Amino acid sequence: MGFMNKKVLRVGFSLLMAFWLALGTLTQPAMALTSEQKLVSEVWRIVNRTYLDETFNHQNWAAVRQKVLEKPLSDSNASYAAIGRMLKSLDDPFTRFLDPEQYRSLQVNTSGELTGVGLQIALNPETGKLEVVAPIVGSPADKAGIRPRDRILKIEGISTENLTLDEAATKMRGPSGSLVTLLIERDGETETEIRLTRDRIALNPVVSDLRVSPEGTPIGYLRLTQFNANASTELAHAISSLEKKGADAYILDLRNNPGGLLQSGIEIARLWLDSGTIVYTVNRQGIQGSFEAFGPPLTTDPLVILVNQGTASASEILAGALQDNGRAELVGETTFGKGLIQSLFELSDGSGLAVTIAKYETPQHRDINKLGIKPDKVISQTAINREQIGTEADLQYQAAIELLKKNSVVAGKV
Q1: What is the pTM assigned to this prediction?
Q2: Cα separation of 110 and 231, whole Å?
C-alpha cells in the first residue's frame, strides 16, 4: 500500500512537472516577445478583428503571423518591413501600414494647407499601377494638365511598380519651390515626362456662383473639390447665400472630387434630402448599418450633379444617395468605383494602420466598388482646363443646363 502511495505520488509529481513544463512552453514566446514582435502582433490582432474579408484573401491568417515572427526583427525598420509583407498578402492596396512620419502626415488637418504637387492617387487593384484619382484644383499637377486615370510610372526616375501609396506620396511631397519629375502614361498617348514645382496647396473645398441660363433662370453653381471636416458647413453657407440671391435650380459639380471623410459626405447629402437612406455599410459578418436623412433640406429646387472618372469614394456616396432617392440627376461619365471604407488605428509606437473594415452600398443596394455609378445622361468630353469649367467649352456643364431647362419646375419659370 505504501509502495502504491509512493508510486502515485511520483506519477502525480511527474504529471505536475510535465504540466508546468508544457505551460512554460506555451507562455514563453508571449513573454519573450521583443518590442518589434509586439508591434507585429498588434497589427495582426487589429486586422484579425476588423478586416472586411474574413478569409483574409483565402489564407490562414494565424499562419501568416507565425511565419513573420519566426524571423528575428533587429529594429523598427525590420518590423515595419515585416508588417508590410504581412499586409501585402491581403492583396488590398487600401489596407496599409504607415510609419510615424507617414501617419502624422495623414493626420494633417484637411482644411488647412499641404505642400506638394496636389494629386490624389490610388493603386489600381486590377493592374497594380499607381493611378491618378484626381488633381487638386489649382495645384501644380492641375495646372500641368495631369488627368484622372493617368498612370504614374516613375517619380524622380524611380519606378513606382513596387511602391506603396504612402511611399509614392512621400516622394512627391517636398518643400515649396522644389522640383519633382513624374513619368506619366495615358491611354492613346506616348509616355510623357512632366516636371512640377511643388507649392503650398490651399484646400478650400467649395466654389459657388450664381449664374443665369440663356432662358434667364438663376442657377446656383456649386463646385465641391473634396470632403474635408468643414465641407458640409461651407457648402451649407453657399447654398443659403445662393437661395437669398434667388437661385431656382442648382448644379453640383463633383468632377475630379476624390472623396475624403465619409461623415462629410453623409452630412452634405442631408443638406439636400428631406428623408430617406443615404448609404448602407456592410461588414464582414454582413451586418448592415445605415445613415438616414431627417430633413428639412436647405432647398427643394431642382438639382443636377456633374460626375466623371475622377469622382470617387465619398463623392460616389453623395451622388448615389441623391440619384437613388430621386433628388438629383447625374450628368457626365461613370465614376471611379471606390466603395470600400477604411478605419485608421494608431499603434503603440506612434505609427498607424489603415484597415478596410466595410464596404458601402447605395440606398438601392448598388455595390459601387470597381463598378462606379453610371450617370442618368452620359456625356464624355476631352480634357478642359480650369478656366473652361462651367463655360460653353464644358459640354457636361452645358448638358446639365439643358437638363434643368427640361425640368418642369424650371420650365415653368423660364
Answers
A1: 0.70
A2: 10
